[in-house]
Structure formats: C-alpha cells, structure tokens
C-alpha cells in the first residue's frame, strides 16, 4: 500500500503565521512591507489581535491614528511576531 503525503503549495511553504496586538487605546493601520508575496494593509482596533501569514524577512509597519504621522511610527520584524502552533 502506498501512502501519499498531502501536496504543499510552494508559494505558502516559506510563509509563517504571525500575530500582532494593538496595545493602545487608538486605532492603528498596519502594513506588511519588504515582502514580494504578501500584500496586507489593515486597520487594527484598540486591544485587538491581527493574525496574518507572511515571509520571515517581511516587516510590519505600524501607523498611529495621528494626522501628523504619515510615516510609520514603529517597524517590527515579522520573525519576531511568529505564532507557535
């Protein structure tokens, strides 16, 4: 009897599950950068979690809810946000 393993999509093989929590009382906009395969930009509500998949070399840019802050207020390497399942 031959046992076959489930097929793995090569596009998702190098991706990892990441998690980010907005620990502020303000809205934040987050965006994945430095990734050729992941396009993500989301609003994260206060105290909420965001789970997403991306490559280890990507970065999460965090924009605060301030009109005078058009550039990211923080950048976090996505490998630091990896969720262990």
Q: Would you give an account of this structure?
A:
- This protein is mainly β.
- The protein has a single domain, classed as Immunoglobulin-like (Sandwich), CATH 2.60.40.
- It is 5% helix and 38% strand.
- The chain has one helix at residues 10-13; strands at residues 16-21, 28-33, 41-44, 49-54, 59-64, 74-77.
- It has a four-stranded antiparallel sheet with strand order 3-2-5-6, with no helix packed on it.
- A hairpin with a 7-residue loop joins strand 2 and strand 3.
- The radius of gyration is 16 Å and the shape is globular.
Detail the topology: elements first, then pairings.
Blueprint: H1 10-13, E1 16-21, E2 28-33, E3 41-44, E4 49-54, E5 59-64, E6 74-77
Antiparallel strand pairs: 1-4, 2-3, 2-5, 5-6
Q: Describe the sheet with the most strands.
A: 4 strands, antiparallel
| CATH architecture label | Sandwich
Structural class label: mainly beta
Helix content: under 10%
The helix-strand sequence is HEEEEEE
Backbone CA Rg: 16 Å
Could you list some keywords that capture this structure?
single chain; 85 residues; mainly beta; Immunoglobulin-like; four-stranded antiparallel sheet; two-stranded antiparallel sheet; 6 strands
Summarize the structure.
The protein is mainly beta. It has one helix and six strands.
């Amino acid at each position: 009897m031959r046992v076959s393993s489930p097929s793995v999509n090569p596009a998702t093989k190098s991706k990892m599950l990441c998690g980010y929590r907005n620990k502020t009382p303000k809205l934040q906009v987050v965006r994945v950068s430095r990734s050729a395969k992941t396009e993500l930009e989301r609003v994260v509500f206060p105290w909420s979690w965001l789970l997403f998949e991306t490559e280890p070399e990507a970065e999460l840019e965090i924009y605060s809810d301030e009109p005078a802050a058009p550039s990211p207020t923080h950048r976090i390497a996505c490998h630091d946000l990896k969720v262990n399942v």
